[in-house]
């Protein structure tokens, strides 16, 4: 019996010129919600068709419902929350410094606006505009913040995205179960400043309650929900001083409990959990390894675990699956092509990467993927070429089984 190793990607795909322009027109008041929805539906149909033509097994809307107006955009995966939740504002740095809520004694405080330890360690490189990584050093002109009660206001937007994807799937003859939509985790959303709730944990739980409505809208349509949760690994580098591991695990455990509350009643087989170390192009010298996080990730009510495995800072961690048993109901979604390099991975290399995981946990429990979203991180032509290499590498790896 032959084995076919399935393929997917993490979510964000390059936006079309028409979609970026529609987003800009909508933000400027020149295009109403109905007009934007028409463009989203048409462009989603095209991006789904293109994924299907490539042979990807699990496809999505390219995150076309998460507004992006520029070709390079590292933040659309979470900044879409400003269009779908009440209680959010942008503050000046002076306003933020004067009004941020205190953290209770003995608790870790995540200062999302501080320089990462990696940025400090490689300050010369990050501050050099010729280095290729200087984007990370640009200070935010405003501070995104929770300044009022959080509630979900994105019902029309998520309904638009669900309708666009399900319609596109039908058009290419694919079942709804082959489609996924992405949504931010409560903990990732809560990394913006809290200026309203009693403390950080209260803000995380408020996000969980508000996000639950979006999670339900996606899964009740029969689609798979991908939780974008860079918070689990990436938050480690956002503390000014490296935290105690026990304290960091406690910090993360609270956030997973809040996420599971938001996922309560949702079939875990419809959920995949994406862990990454951030999308910026830089050394990542202070990244936390994957091993201390495996048991925490296993606590999430999600059967799929998506993570970076082509990233050269973490590629060696595939060996963890030789010694750590994958729970029986789970499967892996390892990245085998990277968003962090313009070099196009050879299909044979992709096949080698896939084969490592397939031999460790079984080919039927591996869905080959990208490290992170490609949209806004690499040029469109390169992004689609990487997906071609991904599919061809999976074909080669399948032949080996």
Strand content is 5-15%
Q: What is the first-to-last residue Cα distance?
A: 9 Å
Please name the CATH topology.
TIM Barrel
Query: What structural category characterises the helix and strand content?
Result: alpha/beta
Would you list the SSEs in sequence order as H and E? EHHEHEHHHEHEHEHEHHEHEEHEH
Radius of gyration: 20 Å
Overall pLDDT score: 93
Judging by the overall fold, what is the CATH architecture? Alpha-Beta Barrel
Helix content: 25-40%
CATH class: Alpha Beta
Sheet with the most strands, sense and barrel status = 8 strands, parallel
**Assembly form of the protein:** single chain
Give the overall shape, derived from the CA principal axes: globular
User: How large is the count of helical segments?
Assistant: 14
> Total domains, how many?
1
Strand order, sheet with most strands:
1-11-10-9-8-7-5-2
Count of DSSP E strands?
11
Low-pLDDT runs: none
Tell me what you see in this structure.
- This protein has 401 residues and is α/β, with parallel strands linked by helices.
- The chain has a single domain, classed as TIM Barrel.
- It is 39% helix and 13% strand.
- It has 14 helices and eleven strands.
- The protein has helices at residues 17-27, 33-54, 76-79, 93-99, 117-121, 123-126, 155-171, 186-189, 200-219, 231-234, 245-263, 294-298, 347-361, 380-399; strands spanning 6-7, 59-60, 85-91, 143-152, 179-184, 193-194, 224-228, 271-275, 304-307, 331-337, 367-370.
- It has an eight-stranded parallel sheet with strand order 1-11-10-9-8-7-5-2. A three-stranded mixed sheet has the order 3-4-6.
- Helix 2 packs parallel to helix 7 (155-171) and helix 7 runs parallel beside helix 9 (200-219).
- The radius of gyration is 20 Å and the shape is globular.
- The model has no long low-confidence stretch (mean pLDDT 93).
- It comes from Actinomyces lilanjuaniae.
- This is Epoxyalkane--coenzyme M transferase.
């Amino acid at each position: 019996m032959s084995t076919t190793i399935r393929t997917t990607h993490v979510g964000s795909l390059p936006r079309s010129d028409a979609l970026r322009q529609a987003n800009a027109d909508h933000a400027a008041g020149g295009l109403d919600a109905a007009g934007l929805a028409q463009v989203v539906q048409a462009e989603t149909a095209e991006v789904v068709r293109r994924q299907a033509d490539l042979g990807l097994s699990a496809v999505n809307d390219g995150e076309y419902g998460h507004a992006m107006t520029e070709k390079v955009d590292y933040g659309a995966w979470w900044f879409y929350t400003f269009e779908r939740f009440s209680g959010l504002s942008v503050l000046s740095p002076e306003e933020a410094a004067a009004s941020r809520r205190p953290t209770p004694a003995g608790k870790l405080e995540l200062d999302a606006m501080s320089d990462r330890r990696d940025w400090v360690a490689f300050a010369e490189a990050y501050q050099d505009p010729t280095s290729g990584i200087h984007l990370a050093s640009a200070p935010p002109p405003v501070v995104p913040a929770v300044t009022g009660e959080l509630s979900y206001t994105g019902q029309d937007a998520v309904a638009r995205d669900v309708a666009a994807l399900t319609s596109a799937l039908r058009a290419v003859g694919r079942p709804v179960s082959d489609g996924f939509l992405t949504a931010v985790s409560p903990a990732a959303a809560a990394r913006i400043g809290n200026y309203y709730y009693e403390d950080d944990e209260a803000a995380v739980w408020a996000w969980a309650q508000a996000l639950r409505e979006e999670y339900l809208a996606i899964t009740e349509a029969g689609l798979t929900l991908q939780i974008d949760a860079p918070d689990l690994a990436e938050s480690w580098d956002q503390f000014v001083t490296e935290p105690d591991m026990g304290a960091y695990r406690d910090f993360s455990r609270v956030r997973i409990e809040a996420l599971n509350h938001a996922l309560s009643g949702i079939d875990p087989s419809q959920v995949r959990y994406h862990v990454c170390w951030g999308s910026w192009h830089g050394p990542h010298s202070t990244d936390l390894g994957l091993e201390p996080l495996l048991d925490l990730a296993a606590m999430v009510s999600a059967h799929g675990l998506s993570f970076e495995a082509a990233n050269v800072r973490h590629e060696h961690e595939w060996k963890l699956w030789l010694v750590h048993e994958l729970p029986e109901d789970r499967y892996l979604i390892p990245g085998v092509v990277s968003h962090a390099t313009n070099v196009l991975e050879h299909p044979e290399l992709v096949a080698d990467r896939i084969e490592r995981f397939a031999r460790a946990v079984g080919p039927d429990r591996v869905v080959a993927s990208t490290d992170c979203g490609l949209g806004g991180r690499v040029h469109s032509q390169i992004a689609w070429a990487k997906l071609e290499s991904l599919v061809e590498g999976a074909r080669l790896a399948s032949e080996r089984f």
